[in-house]
Amino acid sequence: TSIGPRGAIKGSWGGMIATTPGASVTITDSTVSGAQFGLMMLAGTAHVSGTDFRSNETGIAAALGAWLGLSGNNFLNNDMATAAWHTVNPLKSPTDTFSGNEDDALALKAAPTEVHYRELIPVLPGAPPVTREYLGETALAENTVWNGTVVIDGQVAVPPEVTLTIEPGTHVLFSFRDTNGDGLGESWIIVQGTIQVLGEEDAWVLFDSDDDSTGPGSWDSLSVIASDSRDNIISHAMFRRGVKAFHNHFSQAKLDNVVFVDNLRGIQFQESEGTVIDRAILRGNQSGARFRDSEVTLKNVVASDNVAGINFLRSKVNVSDLVVTGSLAESFVSRESETTLTRAVITGRRRTTAFGGEVH
Q1: How does DSSP assign 171-189, residue by residue?
Q2: How far does CA 96 lie from the centroid of its chain?
Q3: 74-112 residue pLDDT tens
Q4: Which parts of 8-129 are beta strand (E)?
Q5: What is the pTM of this model?
Q6: What's the CA gap between 157 and 139, in Å, rounded?
């Protein structure tokens, strides 16, 4: 079996990744090429024999707790043939061969790192009474102010020239709606006018599912798409259990004092100039922040215990006072971008940082 496109450059596809203790992988008499990680075992067991790992960024990688049995494999022209995290034992067998790799079998044992930072703690008063309920597709016809608890089962649209203002302490709760059967919630807010989320230090705004038994992905997003407004503000707000909780496309927005927890993607945007994120916590998301083709300022951001931390492409990014820690996958990845870093601590369980482009 040949896995990976022929003639592919290194890193042109992600690779095969096992993430749970029950995962079981067997690869025999095959070729794996062109991947970021040909095989990455974060957990589980793998038996790999008689296989060529050719022209990958990393051939095989294993985290502490995974078990691998290797025999008779060939590692050819990889950046790193094998890598084992949190151990002094290299990942290879006596019958494996290595040729043309930048590094063959590395054991990556790092000293414990203690990182101190000021915690940003949302203040969420008890759920206020329900003041509005939206069912199906609704377009706001005029400037609107939300307070109390607002329940959305469907789509609320904020058209051009209309401003939606959300007052301190408001709970915006989304009902699970899944018309295409993909398991992802579809209730959302789409803004083409102006959005102003005006939470305060002692009364944050909450965006969440209306059902505490649901998990990540139970509602879609607060999406600002093709808005001409320069007054889109998200302040003192917590986003929980969304698909792409805050989504920005062809628009400008300023976020300050925001927390994203247990979302599939916390922050996602593209083609957005002038996006500013100041004082943010990204925790326990599948992806903390992902964006492309944008100009971005990140200040006072902590991304902790996400599967993937911060990942961006073809962007101009100015970062200061950043902590990225505990990521299961990549921690901080910059591709084809201009990146300026000031006062940053970045640690990870496997791939800590990757920079493609200009870095300061």
Answers
A1: EEEE----SSSSS----EE
A2: 35
A3: 999 999 999 887 777 889 999 999 999 998 998 877 666
A4: 13-18, 24-28, 31-33, 35-41, 45-49, 52-54, 58-62, 67-71, 74-76, 80-85, 97-99, 103-108
A5: 0.73
A6: 5
